[in-house]
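for the recovery benchmark. tokens below, seq after
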């Protein structure tokens, strides 16, 4: 399928510089795009490719300085990455899903599946599960007892949705994610062994949540683990039992959040962040990658870095000093020797 610059500009509410009838068939990176492909410029360090690329169409920020050596048709937009998201959604939206239930699926008695849903091969749906309109459950997925999956959600291959989990509308669960697994809870018996504490709660995902591949979200021990609307969780993230994550928070890969911690709205966590249990993290907190949060964050909009994490700019300044410690230590030793000499000269 080909799409013209004029059609793309309408979708993105962008301005065309060049040929509005130029048509492209697929996207590509700016360095190796061909004449029938569309690309984008999101990072200034790639500006040199605006002249060198063979791309037919380039999506660029409206603030860009135009160069008459650019041979590609340009579409100027306010936010390049948001424009890309809208464009790809438009392409994806044109691909209709054919509802139906594969004969190779395994549906237990008492399940309720919309006739507008699609169930692929080798899916197991256990008793009491409810699958809404437009849901697509891909191959080799396990849906546990009394699970609820809301309208338009997609469960990718290999995911495990455990008993009593509730998934809202338009959620995406990526391959091999596990939602609703039992939390890490034990009592220590005086005889010298651990006794497992069964977790009786559940996981609730509100609308428009995405969970990355191989991520795990544990169900609550007695209450629930709650992931609120619009939350985006990357691959290989672990959310422990009874955690609450506020609306539109984004969490990058390999982050771990210990039990009963409450994360605010619009927070951002870089990769490999660690957060200990029973904390409260204020709204709009931003944490740099590989940081550790060991105490509650009370101030909204805090920017943190390090382990234990402190104010971002203080950490950067401190790290600059840290790198100079060997040199500073030598200076201190020289100054100590000089002071000793001066004191000796004075007869002290």
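predicted aa per position
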């Amino acid at each position: 399928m080909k799409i013209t610059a004029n059609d793309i500009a309408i979708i993105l509410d962008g301005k065309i510089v060049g040929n509005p009838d130029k048509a492209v068939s697929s996207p590509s990176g700016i360095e190796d795009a061909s004449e029938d492909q569309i690309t984008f410029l999101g990072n200034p360090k790639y500006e040199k490719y605006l002249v060198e690329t063979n791309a037919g169409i380039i999506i660029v920020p409206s603030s860009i300085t135009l160069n008459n050596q650019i041979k590609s048709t340009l579409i100027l937009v306010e936010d390049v990455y948001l424009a890309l998201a809208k464009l790809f959604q438009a392409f994806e939206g044109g691909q209709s899903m054919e509802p139906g239930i594969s004969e190779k699926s395994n549906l237990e008695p008492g399940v309720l599946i919309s006739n507008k849903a699609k169930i692929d091969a080798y899916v197991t749906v256990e008793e009491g599960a409810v699958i809404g309109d437009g849901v697509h459950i891909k191959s080799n997925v396990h849906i546990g007892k009394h699970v609820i999956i809301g309208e338009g959600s997609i469960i990718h291959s290999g995911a495990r949705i455990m008993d009593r989990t509730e998934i809202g509308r338009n959620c995406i669960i990526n391959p091999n994610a596990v939602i609703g697994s039992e939390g890490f809870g034990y009592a220590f018996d005086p005889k010298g062994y651990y006794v497992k504490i069964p977790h009786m709660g559940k996981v609730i995902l509100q609308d428009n949540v995405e969970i990355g591949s191989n991520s795990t979200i544990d169900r609550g021990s007695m209450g629930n683990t709650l992931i609120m609307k619009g939350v985006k969780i990357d691959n290989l993230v672990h959310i422990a039992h009874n955690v609450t994550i506020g609306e539109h928070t984004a969490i990058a890969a390999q982050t771990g959040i210990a039990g009963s911690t409450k994360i605010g709205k619009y927070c951002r966590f870089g990769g490999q962040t660690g957060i200990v249990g029973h904390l409260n993290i204020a709204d709009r907190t931003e944490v740099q990658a590989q940081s550790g949060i060991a105490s509650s964050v009370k101030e909204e909009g805090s920017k943190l870095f390090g382990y234990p994490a402190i104010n971002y700019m203080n950490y950067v300044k401190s790290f600059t000093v840290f790198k100079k410690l060997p040199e500073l230590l030598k200076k201190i030793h020289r100054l100590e020797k000089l002071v000793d000499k001066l004191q000796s000269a004075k007869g002290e």
